[in-house]
C-alpha cells in the first residue's frame, strides 16, 4: 500500500486534469473567470492529495507502533497472570497437603489411643497376657477405618514364666481366627470365597479332649518354612503326655487353611530363647493363606528391640523407622513382601510395589487405664506411607512432589489428585523449584497447643510420641508437569493474535482506502463531467443555484434497474406503514415483497412415484427423495437457479429472482436437462438398494416464463414464496407433460430463441388444455444427447404413440425378435397415463443383485443372533408333536421325501425364545466372509437364469417383486416390539426362509397353470402326484442347486446342523406350496388350520403348539400376500402386473397351449378373485395383528383397486385384447416380408 501511495501521490490530480481537458477541448474559447476557476480547482485538488497522502503515512506508522506495543503488553500480562496463578495454586495445594498430613497423623494417633483404652477397659478384670479379643474383626474394623492403617496387630507381653500357659491359651483360643475369617468375609466376599464348612471350635480357654487320630501331615501355613526346625514333642513345654496329646489333637482338628501353631516362633522356627516375648496374637484383616505371623515373636526384629524399651519403660508411643520389602533378597524378605502385599490388598490399598516405604506405629496398652503404670501389650498399626498423602487434594491437582526424610532416609511421592505415586528412595524433586519449598516437621504436630498461631489447630491428648522418633520432615515442591499445566504458550498466542488483529486492521484500512480512492475518482470524474456540461450551458450564477437547490441524492444502481423495466430487473412494491383492524391500530412494517417483470419457473415431478412408493417401506421412499433432491440442489446452485421448496415428490425452482439474471430462461432449461439426465443415472444406481422398478422412475418437467410476485409471507414458519399467474400456468404445463419430457410455454421458447437456442425446441403437435387459460401451445425441449429415442423408463419423447409410430420403432429394434415374447409382456400400456409407462426389463443381474442384497441383510441377522446367543445355535426337539418331524434332519439333498407334499406339516416349531428383545443382534455389526457373499450372489444369479424370461408374468422380475413385498411385511413384524408375533420377530432364520422362498417360488415356471402343465408334461405330473406341480418343481430345482458342493459355505452359514437344516427345509416347502391357491386339498388344510388357530382355543393343547401353529399360518400368508401383492398396491402397479398376466394367458392361447381366450372372462374373473381371495386375504393379514399398519394399507388398496376395476375393467380388458391383436397382425406382416 505504501508503494502505491508513494508512486501515485499525484495520480488523482493528474487523472482529474486529463478528464477535465477532454471536456475543456470541446468548450471553444473561454472567459477568464472560468479558466481561473479551473486552475484553482486543480491546484486545490493537488494540495489536498498531498495532505491526505502524508496523513495516511502517519496513520500507518501509528497503527504499526500500536500493534507492536499491544502485542508486547498482551504477552507480558498473560505471562504474569499464568505465573501468579501457578504460584497461588501451588501454595494452596501445598498448604492443604501439609495440613492434611497433620490431620492424618492426628487421626492415626487418636485412633490408636482409643484402641488402647478400649483394650485396657475390655480386659480390666482379666489376667494378662491370657486374653483374646472377642469378635476381633468387628472390634478392629472402626479403628482401621479411623487410622487409615493397612492392618493392626495385637502383641501381648509374655513373661518367661508365662510361656507354657500362653501356649496352652493359644490352643484353647485359636478359634478367634476362624471367627475373624468369617467376619472379614461376610460383608464383602462372594460365596465362592468362603470355605464349604468350618469345624466346631470350643470356646473354653481350657484344653479339650478328642478321640480323633493324629494326621500325618500339617499345612504349610502352620509349620515353619522348609528346612527349618519343626515343632516336635521335644520342644513342647514340660507336661504330661495326655496334655500334649490333647494339645496336638485339638491343633490338628482345625481347618488346615486357618490352623495356628501354638508355639512362639522366630524366623528359624520355634523361639527357644529365654526372656520376654511379644507374640503376634491377633491382627486384622486376617490373611487366611498365611498364618505364619500368628504367635510370631516380634522381639526378634532388631528395630522393634530398640523400640521396645521406649514402649515399656518410657511408656511412649513410637513411630518406627520406615521399612520396605524387596523380592528375592532372602526367604524371610520374600515372605514379608508377600504378607504385606496381601494385607494391603485386603485393606483396599491396591497393589504394593516392592521397595515402597511401610511405616509402623507402636502404641502401649496399659493394665490399668487410671494408673498407666504397667504396659501389658503392644498395638502395632501398619501404615502405608502413601496413605498420608491420599484423598487430600482435589482431582485437578497434578504433579505435586512431596519429599519425606528421616535421619538417614529419604523417599519421594508424586501426588496427582487423590492418589500418591511412589517415585523412589531419594530426594527426587526438581531443583529448579527450590524457592517454592513448603516444609513441615512431624514434631510440630505434637508441639501444637491448638492456638491460632499454631501450625496445627488441634491438641493431641494421647500417649506422647517419643522425641527420638519424631525426626520425620516433609518438603513439598511443584514439578515440571504441574508447571506445564499453567505456564503454557498462551501468552505467545495472545501476542500473535493481537498482532494479527492489528495487521488485519492495517490491511483493512489499506483496502478500504483503495476502495474509497477508486470511488472518489469516479465521483470526481462524474462531477467534473457534469460541471463541464453545466458550465458550458449555464452561467456560473445559474449553475450555483442549480447545485444549491438539488438536494436529492442520486439514484442507486438498483433504482436504475427498476426504472428501465428490462428483463431481470425488479421494481419495489413499497407500501406505507398502515394500521390494520387486527393489531389495535398499531403501525405494521411494510410487507417484504418485490415484483419481478421477467423470471422463469420450473415444476418437476417424479413420474411413477406414487405407484412405486406403494410397494416400498417408508425408509426406502425417503432414501429416493433425499438422493434425488440433494442432487438437484447441487445442480441448481451450479446453474444459479433458486430452489423455492419441495412438496411431496414435486420440486419447485425459479431463476431470475431474487438475484436478477438476464439469462434466466436459458439457465432454467439447462438445469432441467441436467436433472432429466441425472435422474436416469440415479434411478439405476439405486436399483440394488430400492429394487428393480426404481430404474423405471423418471421426471416430468414444466417450465414457464413471465412476471412474478415474490416475497416473504410473514407469520408462523415464514418462507420465500412465489405468486401470480406465471406460477399457476407452470403447474398446468407440468401436469400436462409426459414422463421423461421437458415441456415449456410459448413465452419460455421465445426467450430461448432470443439466446440462439431454438434448436432445443420441438413444437408439440396437440395443444394442451390449461385450467383458466384454455388452449395453450407448448414445446418439447430436447434432452441432452437425444435425437428421437431415450432409453429408459417411459415411451420415447419423440416417438408417436400411434400404431404407425410404434411400428417404426419396432422396425428399428428388430421386430422379428421383439414380437410376441417381449412385446406381449410390455404391450398395452395406457399412453394417456404417464405414470403407467414402464421401460423394458433391466438386465437380469440387476434383479439378482437386488435379491442378493435383501438376502444378505437377513443372513447377517442369522449370524448376529447366533453369535450373541448364550445357548447352542439350535436345540434338539425332544417333544413329539402331531405333524412334526422327529430326530435328526437329513444332511443332504438326497435324504428328502419323494414328494414335497409329504413334507407339508401342520405347523413348524420355532425356537423357544419367543418375542425376546432383538435390538442386540439386529443392530450388531456382523461381517459375512467374502466367500459366503460370493456364493450367495452366484446362487441368486443362477436362480435368475432358471426363470423363463419369455413369460410376461411368471418371470424373475415378478419374483423380485414378491421378494420385495415379503421383505416389507417381515420388516413390519420385526418393527413391532410390544405385541405378540408368535416368535417370528425373534427368529431371523424363519425370515430368511420366507425371503428365500419368495425368490425361488416360480423357478422354471412354464407360463401355464398346473392343469395345463400336467397335460404338457405327464411324467412331471405323476412325479409330483398331480398336485402343486409347478410349485414342487420349483422347490426341487432350487433345493438341488443349493445342495451343490460349490454352495457349501453358504449352506453352513444359513444353518449350523441337521436340525436347523430340516427346519429351514420345512419352512421353504410350506411357503412354496402355499402359493398354489387353487389346490383344493391344500386350501382346505390351510382353512382348517386358520380356524383352529385363530377361532378355537383348547386348554388341553400346549401354548407353545398354539403359538407355532399361528406362526406357520402367518408365514404362509406372508408368501401368499406377497405373491399377489400387486393387487393390494397402487392402481398403476396392479394394472402393470394384471396386464402382464393377461398377456401371458393370451400368449398361451395364441400358441395353442390353452383352449380358452382369456378376454371373455377376464373382467369377471378379476372381480371374483378380489372378492374370494384378495380381500379375504387382506382381512386375514389384519386379523393376525402382527403387521401393524401394513395390513390396513393392503386392505385399503385391495378395495380401491376392486372398485376401480369394476368401473373401468371391461374397457381395459378390451384395450388389452385390441393392442395384442394389432401387435400379432404386425408380426405376421413382418414374417411375410422376411419370408
From TrEMBL:
Keyword Hydrolase: yes
Start and end residues of each Guanylate cyclase domain: 600-734
Compositional bias per record (Low complexity), positions renumbered to this chain: 199-222
Cofactor note: Binds 2 divalent metal cations per subunit. Site 1 may preferentially bind zinc ions, while site 2 has a preference for magnesium and/or manganese ions.
Residues covered by the PDEase domain: 869-1230
InterPro entries: A/G_cyclase, Cyclic_nucleotide_synthase, HD/PDEase_dom, Nucleotide_cyclase, PDEase_catalytic_dom, PDEase_catalytic_dom_sf, PDEase_CS
Record-stated family: Belongs to the cyclic nucleotide phosphodiesterase family.
Composition-biased stretches (Acidic residues): 8-18
A Pfam family annotated for this UniProt entry: PDEase_I
Record-annotated membrane-spanning stretches: 55-74, 492-515
Subcellular location: Membrane
Broad class of the protein's primary localization: membrane
Protein name: Phosphodiesterase
Extent of Polar residues compositional bias: 187-198
Region (Disordered), start-end ranges: 1-36, 184-250, 545-586
Gene Ontology molecular functions: 3',5'-cyclic-nucleotide phosphodiesterase activity; adenylate cyclase activity; guanylate cyclase activity; metal ion binding; nucleotide binding; peptide receptor activity
GO cellular component, one term: plasma membrane
Organism: Cylindrotheca closterium
Known EC number: 3.1.4.-
An individual GO BP term: receptor guanylyl cyclase signaling pathway
UniProt KW keywords: Hydrolase, Lyase, Membrane, Metal-binding, Nucleotide-binding, Transmembrane, Transmembrane helix
Cofactor(s) essential for the protein: a divalent metal cation
Amino acid at each position: 500500500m505504501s508503494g502505491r501511495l508513494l508512486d501515485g501521490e499525484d495520480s488523482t490530480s493528474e487523472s482529474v486534469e486529463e478528464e477535465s481537458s477532454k471536456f475543456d477541448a470541446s468548450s471553444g474559447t473561454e472567459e477568464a473567470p472560468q479558466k481561473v476557476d479551473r486552475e484553482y480547482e486543480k491546484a486545490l485538488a493537488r494540495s489536498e492529495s498531498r495532505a491526505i497522502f502524508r496523513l495516511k503515512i502517519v496513520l500507518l506508522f501509528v497503527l504499526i507502533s500500536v500493534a507492536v506495543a499491544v502485542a508486547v503488553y498482551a504477552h507480558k500480562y498473560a505471562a504474569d497472570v499464568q505465573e501468579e496463578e501457578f504460584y497461588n495454586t501451588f501454595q494452596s495445594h501445598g498448604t492443604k497437603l501439609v495440613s492434611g498430613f497433620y490431620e492424618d497423623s492426628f487421626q492415626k494417633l487418636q485412633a490408636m489411643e482409643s484402641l488402647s483404652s478400649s483394650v485396657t477397659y475390655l480386659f480390666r478384670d482379666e489376667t494378662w497376657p491370657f486374653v483374646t479379643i472377642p469378635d476381633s474383626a468387628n472390634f478392629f474394623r472402626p479403628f482401621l477405618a479411623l487410622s487409615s492403617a493397612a492392618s493392626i496387630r495385637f502383641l501381648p507381653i509374655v513373661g518367661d514364666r508365662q510361656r507354657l500357659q500362653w501356649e496352652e491359651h493359644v490352643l484353647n483360643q485359636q478359634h478367634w481366627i476362624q471367627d475373624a475369617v468369617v467376619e472379614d468375609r461376610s460383608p464383602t466376599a462372594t460365596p465362592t470365597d468362603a470355605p464349604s464348612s468350618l469345624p466346631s471350635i470350643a470356646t473354653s480357654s481350657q484344653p479339650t479332649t478328642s478321640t480323633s487320630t493324629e494326621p500325618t501331615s500339617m499345612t504349610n501355613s502352620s509349620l515353619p518354612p522348609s528346612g527349618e526346625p519343626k515343632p516336635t514333642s521335644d520342644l513342647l513345654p514340660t507336661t504330661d503326655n495326655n496334655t500334649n496329646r490333647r494339645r496336638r489333637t485339638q491343633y490338628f482338628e482345625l481347618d488346615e487353611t486357618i490352623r495356628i501353631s501354638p508355639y512362639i516362633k522366630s524366623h528359624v522356627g520355634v523361639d527357644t530363647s529365654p526372656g520376654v516375648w511379644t507374640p503376634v496374637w491377633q491382627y486384622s484383616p486376617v490373611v487366611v493363606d498365611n498364618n505364619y505371623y500368628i504367635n510370631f515373636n516380634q522381639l526378634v526384629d532388631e528395630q522393634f528391640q530398640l523400640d521396645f524399651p521406649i514402649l515399656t519403660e518410657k511408656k511412649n508411643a513410637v513411630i518406627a523407622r520406615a521399612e520396605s520389602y524387596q523380592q528375592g533378597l532372602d526367604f524371610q524378605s520374600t515372605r514379608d513382601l508377600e504378607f504385606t502385599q496381601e494385607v494391603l490388598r485386603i485393606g483396599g490399598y491396591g497393589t504394593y510395589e516392592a521397595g515402597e516405604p511401610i511405616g509402623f506405629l507402636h502404641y502401649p496398652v496399659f493394665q490399668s487405664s487410671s494408673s498407666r503404670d504397667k504396659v501389658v501389650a503392644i498395638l502395632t498399626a501398619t501404615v502405608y506411607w502413601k496413605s498420608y498423602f491420599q484423598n487430600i487434594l482435589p482431582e485437578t491437582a497434578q504433579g505435586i512432589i512431596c519429599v519425606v526424610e528421616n535421619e538417614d532416609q529419604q523417599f519421594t511421592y508424586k501426588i496427582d489428585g487423590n492418589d500418591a505415586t511412589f517415585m523412589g528412595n531419594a530426594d527426587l524433586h526438581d531443583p529448579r523449584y527450590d524457592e517454592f519449598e513448603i516444609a513441615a516437621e512431624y514434631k510440630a504436630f505434637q508441639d501444637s497447643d491448638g492456638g491460632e498461631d499454631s501450625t496445627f489447630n488441634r491438641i493431641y491428648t494421647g500417649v506422647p510420641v517419643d522425641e527420638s522418633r519424631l525426626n520425620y520432615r516433609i518438603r513439598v515442591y511443584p514439578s515440571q508437569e504441574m508447571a506445564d499445566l499453567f505456564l503454557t504458550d498462551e501468552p505467545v498466542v495472545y501476542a500473535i493474535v493481537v498482532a494479527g488483529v492489528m495487521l488485519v486492521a492495517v490491511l483493512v484500512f489499506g483496502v478500504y482506502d483503495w476502495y474509497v480512492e477508486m470511488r472518489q475518482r469516479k465521483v470526481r470524474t462524474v462531477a467534473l463531467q457534469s460541471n463541464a456540461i453545466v458550465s458550458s450551458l449555464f452561467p456560473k450564477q445559474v449553475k450555483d443555484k442549480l447545485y444549491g437547490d438539488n438536494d436529492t441524492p442520486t439514484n442507486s444502481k438498483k433504482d436504475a434497474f427498476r426504472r428501465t423495466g428490462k428483463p431481470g430487473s425488479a421494481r419495489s412494491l413499497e407500501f406505507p406503514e398502515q394500521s390494520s383492524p387486527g393489531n389495535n391500530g398499531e403501525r405494521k412494517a411494510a410487507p417484504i415483497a418485490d415484483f419481478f417483470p421477467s423470471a422463469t419457473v420450473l415444476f418437476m415431478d417424479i413420474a411413477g412415484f406414487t405407484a412405486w412408493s406403494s410397494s416400498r417401506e417408508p425408509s426406502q421412499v425417503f432414501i429416493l427423495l433425499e438422493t434425488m433432491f440433494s442432487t438437484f440442489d447441487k445442480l441448481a446452485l451450479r446453474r444459479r437457479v433458486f430452489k423455492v421448496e419441495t412438496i411431496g415428490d414435486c420440486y419447485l425452482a425459479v431463476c431470475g429472482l431474487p438475484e436478477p439474471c438476464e439469462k434466466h430462461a436459458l439457465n432454467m432449461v439447462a438445469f432441467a436437462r441436467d436433472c432429466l439426465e441425472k435422474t436416469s443415472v440415479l434411478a439405476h444406481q439405486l436399483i440394488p438398494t430400492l429394487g428393480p422398478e426404481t430404474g423405471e422412475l423418471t421426471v416430468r418437467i414444466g417450465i414457464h416464463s413471465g412476471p412474478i410476485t415474490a416475497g416473504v409471507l410473514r407469520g408462523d414458519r415464514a418462507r420465500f414464496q412465489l405468486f401470480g399467474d406465471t406460477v399457476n400456468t407452470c403447474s398446468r404445463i407440468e401436469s400436462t407433460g409426459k414422463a421423461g419430457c421437458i415441456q415449456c410455454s410459448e413465452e419460455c421458447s421465445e426467450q430461448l430463441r432470443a439466446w440462439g437456442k431454438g434448436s432445443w425446441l420441438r413444437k408439440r403437435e396437440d395443444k394442451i388444455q390449461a385450467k383458466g387459460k384454455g388452449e395453450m401451445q407448448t414445446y418439447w425441449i430436447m434432452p441432452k444427447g437425444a435425437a428421437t429415442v431415450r432409453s429408459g423408463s417411459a415411451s420415447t419423447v419423440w416417438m408417436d404413440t400411434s400404431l404407425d409410430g410404434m411400428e417404426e420403432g419396432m422396425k428399428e429394434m428388430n421386430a422379428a425378435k421383439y414380437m410376441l415374447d417381449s412385446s406381449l409382456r410390455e404391450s398395452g400400456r395406457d399412453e394417456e397415463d404417464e405414470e403407467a409407462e414402464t421401460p423394458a426389463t433391466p438386465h437380469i443381474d440387476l434383479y439378482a443383485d437386488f435379491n442378493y442384497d435383501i438376502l444378505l441383510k437377513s443372513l447377517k441377522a442369522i449370524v448376529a443372533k447366533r453369535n450373541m446367543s448364550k445357548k447352542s445355535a439350535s436345540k434338539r426337539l425332544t417333544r413329539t408333536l402331531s405333524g412334526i418331524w422327529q430326530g435328526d434332519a437329513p444332511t443332504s439333498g438326497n435324504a428328502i421325501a419323494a414328494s414335497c407334499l409329504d413334507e407339508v406339516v401342520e405347523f413348524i416349531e420355532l425356537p423357544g425364545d419367543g418375542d425376546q428383545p432383538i435390538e442386540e443382534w439386529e443392530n450388531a455389526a456382523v461381517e459375512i466372509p467374502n466367500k459366503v457373499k460370493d456364493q450367495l450372489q452366484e446362487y441368486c444369479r443362477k436362480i435368475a437364469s432358471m426363470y423363463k424370461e419369455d413369460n410376461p408374468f411368471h418371470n424373475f422380475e415378478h419374483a423380485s417383486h414378491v421378494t420385495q413385498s415379503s421383505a416389507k411385511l417381515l420388516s413390519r413384524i420385526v418393527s413391532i416390539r410390544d405385541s405378540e408375533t408368535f416368535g417370528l420377530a425373534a427368529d431371523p432364520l424363519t425370515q430368511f426362509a420366507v425371503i428365500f422362498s419368495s425368490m425361488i417360488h416360480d423357478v422354471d415356471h412354464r407360463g401355464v397353470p398346473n392343469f395345463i402343465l400336467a397335460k404338457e408334461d405327464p411324467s412331471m405330473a405323476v412325479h409330483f402326484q398331480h398336485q402343486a406341480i409347478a410349485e414342487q418343481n420349483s422347490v426341487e430345482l432350487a433345493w438341488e442347486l443349493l445342495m451343490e458342493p460349490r454352495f457349501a459355505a453358504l449352506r453352513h452359514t444359513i444353518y449350523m446342523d441337521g436340525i436347523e437344516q430340516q427346519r429351514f427345509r420345512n419352512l421353504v416347502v410350506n411357503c412354496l406350496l402355499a402359493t398354489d391357491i387353487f389346490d383344493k386339498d391344500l386350501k382346505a388344510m390351510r382353512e382348517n388350520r386358520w380356524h383352529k388357530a385363530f377361532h378355537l382355543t383348547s386348554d388341553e393343547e400346549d401354548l407353545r403348539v398354539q403359538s407355532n401353529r399361528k406362526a406357520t399360518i402367518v408365514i404362509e400368508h406372508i408368501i401368499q400376500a406377497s405373491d399377489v401383492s400387486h393387487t393390494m398396491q397402487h392402481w398403476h402397479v396392479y394394472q402393470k402386473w394384471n396386464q402382464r398376466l393377461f398377456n401371458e394367458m393370451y400368449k398361451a392361447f395364441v400358441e395353442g397351449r390353452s383352449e380358452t381366450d382369456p378376454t371373455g372372462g377376464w373382467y369377471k374373473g378379476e372381480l371374483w378373485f378380489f372378492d374370494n381371495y384378495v380381500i379375504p386375504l387382506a382381512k386375514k393379514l389384519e386379523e393376525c395383528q402382527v403387521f401393524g399398519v401394513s395390513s390396513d394399507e393392503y386392505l385399503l388398496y385391495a378395495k380401491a383397486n376392486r372398485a376401480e376395476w369394476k368401473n373401468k375393467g371391461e374397457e381395459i380388458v378390451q384395450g388389452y385384447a385390441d393392442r395384442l391383436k394389432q401387435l400379432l397382425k404386425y408380426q405376421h406382416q413382418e414374417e411375410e416380408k422376411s419370408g
